[in-house]
Amino acid sequence: MDYRRKKKLTYFTIGLIFLLSGVEYAVILPTIWRYLQTLGAAPYFLGLGLSAFSLSGLLSGPLFGHWSDRTRTTKKIILFANLFEIVGNFMYFMGYSKWLLLSSRLVAGIGTGAGSSIFGFLTRSTAPEDRSTVFAAVMACRQAGLLIGPAFNIFLRLCDFKLGPFVVNKYTAPGLFMCLMWILLQLVVLFMYWDIAPVERGEAGESSASGGGEVEVEGESGLVEEDEPGDDEEGKPLMGSQELMGSYGSVVTPVSNGNLPHVSPPPSPPPPPEADKSTSSFKNFSMSQEFLREEVVVLLAAQFITLFNQTALETMVTPLTQKYFNFGELENSVMYCICGVEVIAGFLFVRWLSRRFAERVVLAVGLIICNISCVWCLIFLAKPIGGFPWQLTEFIIGVFLQVLGLPFVAVAQVSLFSKVTAEKTQGFSQGVRRSVGGLATILGPLWAGGLTENMYIMLGVMMALLALLTMMMFFSYDRLVEPAAVEHADNDDDCG
């Protein structure tokens, strides 16, 4: 199988992974509260269950990322992480007690840590100019999962039978369904995912300009296979690349009085390249130097504040629609579905936009939209004015603006973060970034849940955080670019 086909299948598999993560969220979230009630759980267990999933992902992300940086592989990590998803969802299906249910979300959340390894892999295997479009497509896959997830619930809520000692009903069926989905995904990863070798800068142009055949790279084994030339004029048996070049590139020199070439003796073999990379990746790595730089702090702040505000608003929406519009499950499902369509359209638009504008421009546009949305919510949603039609219009505009700004900020900050942090330790860095986001998804609902009756305080703090982030980005705007000079310096260090 050629390199291009392997790369397409690998990216397709990554899209499936993020699609399933979105489906899992959308399938389990609508029923988990009622499920906990059937097990006699107190109301605070809902917050614990949702936070447990984020907490274990927060802790496992940097570990999986560090693992991928050292080994330069992700396939084994994904297969290992998916086992936690399988076990966790089966525990959710069993549901003997509220503590088992809580433990199930804790176990399943560990599997989400593989996302940091995947983002590290995407960073290494894509050119900087294409990174925003790839990240936008991957994020859109998760949003697609959030969109189609409720459709599965339409069928799962009809389940009412026994499977051996287990009861399959509308509360336990989501766990069984997701367990089966992650098992199927294991097979997809096994047969359709390759640790394709990263394309070095400038290598693509050289290979396309050369007259030789296509090169196929097998990431796991490290073997290089070359397509045979179209015809062999002299009919001689072709020599493999190792025979032609000798070990580690020894030079073939012709001899004037012989028919066979003379191969110079190979030098003593150095350590394998992958071992060199994994050893040197963290040799001079400093947490403070890597993550306390101005541009990195700004992007981590963008990750935290936008996710904090997003999850806080998501938590606030349902009580708000019930209080002012008397929305039920059907109306809320339709609202989330429409928001999902808007988000996917937004990611596709950002994917197109990022080809024409720098990431920092996209980030600035997203923050402007988020600020306008937060101001609108502070004015019109904290204390809605007018009759029902006006209140509904104010609510729709506020939600529309909030959802509109999300893809701009999300894609731009992820892509920029991959460029301003070291590529060698990208898996660990992406794990740190996702952990910061995980902390936001824990604190956001807790903040909003306790202040649903004090909307001015809740929205005021969110507005203050956004204003702070906007000022940080404004003062650091010149630094939000790829540090090309630093990258070359790092490469020179490696060669020395």
Strand and helix layout:
Blueprint: H1 3-38, H2 44-71, H3 75-94, H4 98-111, H5 114-125, H6 131-156, E1 161-163, E2 166-168, H7 173-192, H8 203-209, E3 215-217, E4 224-226, H9 241-245, E5 252-253, E6 262-263, H10 273-281, H11 287-291, H12 294-324, H13 329-353, H14 359-381, H15 388-420, H16 426-449, H17 455-475, H18 484-495
Helix pairs in contact: 1-6, 1-7, 2-4, 2-5, 2-16, 3-4, 3-5, 3-7, 5-16, 6-13, 6-15, 12-15, 12-16, 12-17, 13-15, 14-15, 14-17
Per CATH, the architecture of the largest domain is: Up-down Bundle
What pattern of helices and strands is seen along the backbone?
HHHHHHEEHHEEHEEHHHHHHHHH
Unreliable segments of 5+ consecutive residues: 201-265, 268-280, 485-496
Shape: globular
Radius of gyration: 26 Å
Q: By helix and strand content, what is the structural category?
A: mainly alpha
Structural description of this entry:
The chain is built from 18 helices and six strands. The chain is mainly α and 496 residues long. It has a two-stranded antiparallel ribbon. Strand 3 and strand 4 form a beta hairpin. The longest helix has 36 residues, at 3-38. The radius of gyration is 26 Å and the shape is globular.
Give a short synopsis of this structure:
By secondary structure, the protein is mainly α.
Features:
496 residues, mainly alpha, Growth Hormone, Chain: A, 2 domains, two-stranded antiparallel sheet, 6 strands, globular
